[in-house]
């Protein structure tokens, strides 16, 4: 009969060709009854003998693995990276040299602080980690949607995360930084101030993963075939542009749909609307690094795009949802140490610490050094080495040789390869010491640069966010210490926050390790509003219809939104939809209380006057209109909705962000206006 084929086996819910539907245990025993535990008599005690029930419960008891200590809540998607411009002069990495080749990828987006079940729209940094399955092994670019970090040295990471996560005594608050421990730690860590500006901006409440940037954060090296090295920073630029929600929306979305971001990604990919990001590189040499006013090894600093332009070299397309969330999204293991020949690390002390941490955490989480055998982690190029055994070893090599050097014939075992990975031979010398380089001492200049690069609307949002977060701190010393730091960044901002917190005078500025540079230029690349989508592509219109609504208007709106590459959802008072003016029933995607306006980029309300009078006391209907107004959304309407708009307190305040569609042809102008994301002028208006 020969040897067993060991590549066969393992559980699968779907039958393979030629197999039947027979249910079995994990040992392959056919199961006749999966509903009743073996008992002694129909009402007697259960018997431990029941190997079928015990195996089932045993497996269930062990279903959970530890969640990630950070970035626990994440969402993974398959895709590919296509190189558009080869860069052999900079890097010998195959992935950067073969134009047009599609390298398979797996990307996982995440929030940092919340647990696996926390809501998607927590104010938090988003992880943006991509595994490239290159022909020379896996390259993991484990980045965030913010290009700087809180701390400069990895040794502080456990403290940062302890401070951000729920307090150890009370176990709350979950998935938020608005509490004493976090701001206590931050206000004692001036190096965090640049990051504080970023996290208090709307970057931490993105509209969707599809509308946010990604950054490798650290300075890495590119090394070419001659061994020449350049420094590089990696950027992901979303083709759809940048867009965030506003805080009040985030609060409501979290209650309404805690899966808002993952649902958005699933839906877009399911609909074939594949999100894309360009991969950009900022390349610079030692000479630039020497004269740059900040240390390029300090992960709390950016290099402004206006100083070193971002050069686009390829595109990432996310085009397939996972088949199984656990097997792929949960089990994927990113490691910053996964780099390929032609890419190398720099001496950034945060990056170097990460290189230890990621490998270590995978062992704890996935339980075995063989986590590379799990399909989502396994390289897609040949893998040949002499590592063996361990828990769950799936791919132990065949044959006798498992050591080297060896003198077995060619082909018996792998050999070292000329041209394999070589570290850049950077000259290193110096005393062994624990010290922070003087070149890392500037803590405020770039924080200020970020703040002055924002539009007034964004600056207001930052002041509001800081006031809100600090208002949740009960300890006065924490509040005052933080406002003291803000004075080094911008006196106006400090004053606004101090007023918001009810201070009667501004607190002292703390002593700065280095005097801030106050004349750094504005960097328009840092603003979300200045880098918005500019169109309705990839965005969602919610049309609230009710009986008698003008069918022509609804269809013109649908046509305009879909024509611009957007999605449309119909919302109605009842799940069954509503009969429109043409006598036909239009089906609804959402019932009004399941489709509030906060879940849409723009909204329209189309109903007869009778209907508008009928729903003008209905809270979800009023909220739909009122929230759309309060969140500065573009709103399309027909005049018949007056009774509802009056009840919502907006009829007398309609501005140019409202589009009267008595003339259905205005639908296109409405959708075009939505390219501006919001009618920002409205934010300062007070309603009834
Ligand atoms: Fe991470 N980080 N991190 N981090 N990080 C983890 O690795 C760590 C940092 C980032 O979707 C952990 O597999 C240290 C910066 C992402 O699976 C852990 C330090 C950046 C993800 C870890 C940092 C990141 C992680 C937890 C300070 C942006 C999610 C689970 C030196 C450039 C990856 C895991 C995924 C995950 C450690 C700082 C991004 C514990 C020690 C800076 C996107 O290893």
UniProtKB/TrEMBL annotation:
Enzyme Commission (EC) number: 1.11.1.6
UniProt keyword Endoplasmic reticulum, yes or no: no
GO molecular function: catalase activity; heme binding; metal ion binding
Keyword Ligase among record annotations: no
Active site: 71, 144
Gene Ontology CC annotations of this record: cytosol
Cofactor(s) essential for the protein: heme
Binding site for heme: 68, 108, 157, 354, 358, 365
Catalytic activity, as annotated: 2 H2O2 = O2 + 2 H2O
SUPFAM superfamilies (UniProt xref): Class I glutamine amidotransferase-like, Heme-dependent catalase-like
InterPro entries the record matches: Catalase, Catalase_AS, Catalase_clade2, Catalase_clade2_helical, Catalase_core, Catalase_haem_BS, Catalase_immune_responsive, Catalase_large_C
GO biological process, one term: hydrogen peroxide catabolic process
Ranges that cross the membrane: none
Keyword annotations: Heme, Hydrogen peroxide, Iron, Metal-binding, Oxidoreductase, Peroxidase
One Pfam family cited in the UniProt record for this chain: Catalase-rel
Region (Disordered): 1-44, 404-426
Function: Decomposes hydrogen peroxide into water and oxygen; serves to protect cells from the toxic effects of hydrogen peroxide.
Name of the molecule in the record: Catalase
Taxonomic placement: Bacteria, Pseudomonadati, Pseudomonadota, Alphaproteobacteria, Sphingomonadales
């Amino acid at each position: 009969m020969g040897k067993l084929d060991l590549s066969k086996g393992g559980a699968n819910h779907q039958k393979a060709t030629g197999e039947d539907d027979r249910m079995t245990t994990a040992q392959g025993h056919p199961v006749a009854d999966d509903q009743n535990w073996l008992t002694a008599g129909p009402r007697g005690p259960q018997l431990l003998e029941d190997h079928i029930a015990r195996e089932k419960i045993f497996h269930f008891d062990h279903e959970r693995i530890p969640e990630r200590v950070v970035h626990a809540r994440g969402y993974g998607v398959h895709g590919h990276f296509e190189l558009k411009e080869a860069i052999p002069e900079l890097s010998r990495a195959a992935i950067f040299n073969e134009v047009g080749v599609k390298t398979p990828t797996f990307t996982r987006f995440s929030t940092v602080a919340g647990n696996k079940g926390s809501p998607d729209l927590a104010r938090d940094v988003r992880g943006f980690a991509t595994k490239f399955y290159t022909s020379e092994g896996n390259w993991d670019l484990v980045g965030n949607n913010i290009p700087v970090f809180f701390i400069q040295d990895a040794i502080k990471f456990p403290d940062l995360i302890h401070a951000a996560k729920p307090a150890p005594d009370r176990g709350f608050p979950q998935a938020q930084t608005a509490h004493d421990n976090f701001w206590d730690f931050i206000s004692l860590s001036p190096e965090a101030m640049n990051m504080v500006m970023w996290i208090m901006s709307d970057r931490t409440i993105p509209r969707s993963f599809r509308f946010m940037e990604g950054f490798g954060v650290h300075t890495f090296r590119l090394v070419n075939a001659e061994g020449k090295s350049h420094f590089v920073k990696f950027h992901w630029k979303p083709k759809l542009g940048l867009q965030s929600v506003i805080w009040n929306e985030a609060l409501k979305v979290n209650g309404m749909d805690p899966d808002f971001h993952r649902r958005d990604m699933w839906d877009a990919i399911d609909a074939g609307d594949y999100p894309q990001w360009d991969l950009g590189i900022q390349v610079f040499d030692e000479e630039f690094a020497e004269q740059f006013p900040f240390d390029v090894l300090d992960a709390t600093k950016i290099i402004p795009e206006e100083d070193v332009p971002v050069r686009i070299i390829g595109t990432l397309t996310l085009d397939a949802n996972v088949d199984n969330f656990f097997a792929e999204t949960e089990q994927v293991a990113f490691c910053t140490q996964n780099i390929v020949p032609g890419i190398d690390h720099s001496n950034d002390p945060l990056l170097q610490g990460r290189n230890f941490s990621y490998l270590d955490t995978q062992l704890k989480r996935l339980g075995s050094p063989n986590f590379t055998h799990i399909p989502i982690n396994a390289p897609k190029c040949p893998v040949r080495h002499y590592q063996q055994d361990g828990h769950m070893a799936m791919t132990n090599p065949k044959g006798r040789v498992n050591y080297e050097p060896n003198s077995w014939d060619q082909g018996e075992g792998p050999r070292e390869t000329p041209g394999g990975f070589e570290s850049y031979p950077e000259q290193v010398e110096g005393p062994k010491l624990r010290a922070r380089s003087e070149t890392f001492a500037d803590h405020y200049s770039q924080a200020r640069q970020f703040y002055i690069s924002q539009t007034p609307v964004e600056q207001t949002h930052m002041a509001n966010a800081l006031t809100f977060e600090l208002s949740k701190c009960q300890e006065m010393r924490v509040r005052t210490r933080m406002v003291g730091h803000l004075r080094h960044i911008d006196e106006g901002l400090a004053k606004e926050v101090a007023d918001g917190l009810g201070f009667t005078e501004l607190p002292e500025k703390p002593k700065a390790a280095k005097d801030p540079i106050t004349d750094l230029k504005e960097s328009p690349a840092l603003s979300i509003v200045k880098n918005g989508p500019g169109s309705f592509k990839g965005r969602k219109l919610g049309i609230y219809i009710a009986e008698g609504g003008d069918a022509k208007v609804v269809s013109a709106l649908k046509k305009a939104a879909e024509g611009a590459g957007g999605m449309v959802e119909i919302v109605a008072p009842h799940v069954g939809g509503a009969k429109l003016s043409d006598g036909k029933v239009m089906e609804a995607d959402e019932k009004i209380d399941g489709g509030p306006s906060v879940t849409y980029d723009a909204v329209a309300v189309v109903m007869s006057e009778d209907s508008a009078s009928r729903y003008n006391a209905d809270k979800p209907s009023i909220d739909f209109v009122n929230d759309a107004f309060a969140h500065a959304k573009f709103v399309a309407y027909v005049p018949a909705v007056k009774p509802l708009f009056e009840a919502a307190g907006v009829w007398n305040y309609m501005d140019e962000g409202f589009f009267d569609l008595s003339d259905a042809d205005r639908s296109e102008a409405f959708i075009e206006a939505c390219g501006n994301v919001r009618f920002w002028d409205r934010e300062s208006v007070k309603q009834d």
